[in-house]
Design goal:
Blueprint: H1 6-36, H2 39-46, H3 50-57, H4 60-83, H5 89-106, H6 108-122, H7 129-153, H8 162-178, H9 180-187, H10 194-211, H11 216-229, H12 250-255
Helix pairs in contact: 1-2, 1-4, 1-6, 3-4, 4-7, 5-7, 5-8, 5-10, 5-11, 7-8, 10-11
Length: 256
C-alpha cells in the first residue's frame, strides 16, 4: 500500500503552481513586454489567484527575472545534454545547431524575450542580459569552445578559428529568424511556414556537413544521421502578424 506524505504532496502542488505561473508569465511577457504585461492576465492564464503570484515572486519585476531564468535554464539543460553525448565533436555540434534551430520556432516566446532584452540593452535601459550571460551563456559557450577545439585537434573539423565555426553554425539560425519579416516583404515567402522550416532545417544541417568537416563524406553521413534521429517538432505558431496573402514557395524563387 502506497503511503502519501502530505508535506510532499503539498510541495509537489506548490511546484506545479509555480511552474504554471512561470509558463504563463513567459508567454505574457513575450507578447506585451515587462511594462505591458499584467499580473491579472498572468494569473488568469495560470489558473491561480493573483495573490499567489506575489506569494511566490513578490513583484512583477522579480517574476520577470524568474521567467527569463526558467526559459534559459531549459536551454542550458538541453544543450548540456547534447554537448555531453557520447558522439564525435562534429556530430554534437551539428545536433546542437539543429536543436537551436528547432527551439527558435517551437518556442517563439523565448525568442521574443531575448529580442526584447537586446533592444533594452541597446537603448541603455535596465535589462537582465548581463546576469543571464554570466549564468547561462558563458558556461555554454565555454563548453562549445572546448568541443570545437577537440574536434579540430582530432582532425574531424576544419582547422579554423573555433569561434568562427560557432558564429557560422548558430549565427545562420539567428539571421534566418531575425530577417523573416524582411524575407516576407522582399520575396512573398513566409519563412515560418511549415514547408519553409522543413526545407531550411534540412539545408542548414546538410550545409554544415559539407562546410565544417575535413572529410565531407563523413560530414554528409553525420548530417543524415542527425536529421534522421531528430524529428521536426510541431509547428504550433505561424507568425500571425503577417497578412495571410498568397505565398510564393521557396522552390519557385530558386528556379528564377
Amino acid at each position: 500500500m502506497k503511503i502519501c506524505c502530505p508535506a510532499r504532496t503539498q510541495c509537489e502542488r506548490a511546484d506545479q503552481t509555480r511552474a504554471r505561473i512561470l509558463a504563463a508569465a513567459i508567454r505574457q511577457f513575450s507578447e506585451y513586454g515587462l511594462a505591458g504585461a499584467r499580473t491579472e492576465q498572468i494569473a488568469e492564464e495560470a489558473g491561480v489567484n493573483k495573490a499567489l503570484i506575489y506569494y511566490y515572486f513578490q513583484s512583477k519585476e522579480k517574476l520577470y527575472v524568474a521567467a527569463m531564468e526558467s526559459a534559459f535554464e531549459e536551454v542550458r539543460i538541453d544543450t548540456e545534454a547534447i554537448l555531453s553525448a557520447e558522439t564525435s565533436a562534429g556530430e554534437r555540434l551539428v545536433q546542437m545547431t539543429l536543436n537551436n534551430f528547432d527551439r527558435a520556432y517551437s518556442h517563439p516566446s523565448m525568442r521574443t524575450l531575448m529580442q526584447q532584452e537586446m533592444v533594452r540593452l541597446h537603448q541603455g535601459e535596465e535589462n537582465q542580459l548581463a546576469a543571464m550571460a554570466q549564468k547561462f551563456f558563458r558556461p555554454l559557450w565555454c563548453m562549445i569552445q572546448k568541443l570545437l577545439e577537440d574536434g579540430i585537434t582530432s582532425g574531424e573539423l576544419i582547422p579554423v578559428d573555433p569561434q568562427q565555426i560557432r558564429y557560422t553554425s548558430l549565427g545562420a539560425n539567428v539571421f534566418y529568424f531575425l530577417t523573416a519579416p524582411l524575407t516576407k516583404l522582399a520575396f512573398g515567402i513566409n519563412p515560418m511556414e511549415k514547408s519553409e522550416l522543413e526545407y531550411r532545417r534540412k539545408a542548414s544541417v546538410e550545409y554544415l556537413g559539407q562546410a565544417i568537416f575535413v572529410d565531407r563524406e563523413h560530414g554528409a553521413r553525420v548530417a543524415a544521421r542527425v536529421l534522421a534521429a531528430t524529428p521536426m517538432p510541431p509547428v504550433e505558431v505561424i507568425d500571425n502578424l503577417w497578412p495571410a496573402t498568397a505565398v510564393v514557395h521557396t522552390d519557385q524563387m530558386r528556379r528564377k
